[in-house]
């Protein structure tokens, strides 16, 4: 049986290294954020929550016609932890876990997302992390038992601190998807990745 997993896509950042909001940048026939959102909507996750902050109205208008919930993080300048808290405020009481994804990871395909959900279901580990050629990436699933710990995060940190605290509760899942390690942070990385055939 497929577990109920909420996907929380973190899309609130200012993209300082890029110099402009990368969520809105073109990628193929859509944008970086739209590609990321669609990959999750086409997967087995229970629902999709998008956390917005910087350029809120523009980002919301981009995904307004998609069946996603939107959490507005007005404190996004205080770091990633605030987006995690904002996203968790919208999860259903039914879900067994939350999958945190980054808006600038548009090459994580739906099959890889499904593989993580199914691996989470098949094991009793509380944290599921994809691995490509020995390197950990995103998205990461946390069992709902970690909700309170996630809510206590402060500053510009994500779930990495929790992963460090619970190494024995981590399941690494080998995937054949380089996209789990590709984030588009700079103009150079954007130009390089968008030109590759996929």
Q: What does this protein look like?
A:
- The protein has about 200 residues and is an alpha/beta fold.
- The protein has one domain (about 5-195): Spore Coat Polysaccharide Biosynthesis Protein SpsA, Chain A (Alpha-Beta Complex), CATH 3.90.550.10.
- Helices cover about 30% and strands about 20% of the residues.
- It has seven helices and ten strands.
- Strands 1, 4, 5, 6, 7, 8, 9 and 10 form an eight-stranded mixed beta sheet that branches. A two-stranded antiparallel sheet has the order 2-3.
- Strand 4 (about 45-50), helix 2 (about 55-65) and strand 5 form a beta-alpha-beta unit.
- The longest helix has 13 residues, at about 110-120.
- The protein is globular, with a radius of gyration of 16 Å.
- It starts with a strand and ends with a helix.
Offer a concise description of the structure.
The chain has 198 residues and is of the alpha/beta class. It has 7 helices and 10 strands.
Protein topology:
Blueprint: E1 5-11, E2 26-27, E3 30-31, H1 32-41, E4 47-52, H2 56-63, E5 69-72, H3 80-88, E6 97-102, H4 110-122, E7 127-132, E8 135-136, E9 140-143, H5 147-151, H6 160-165, E10 170-174, H7 187-194
Q: Could you spell the SSE succession in H and E letters?
A: EEEHEHEHEHEEEHHEH
Helicity range:
25-40%
Number of helices: 7
Strand coverage percent: 15-25%
Biggest sheet descriptor: 8 strands, mixed
Count of the domains: 1
Structural class: alpha/beta
In the CATH scheme, what's the topology name? Spore Coat Polysaccharide Biosynthesis Protein SpsA, Chain A
Mean pLDDT: 90
List segments where confidence is low: pLDDT < 50 over at least 5 consecutive residues.
Answer: none
Radius of gyration, in Å, reads: 16 Å
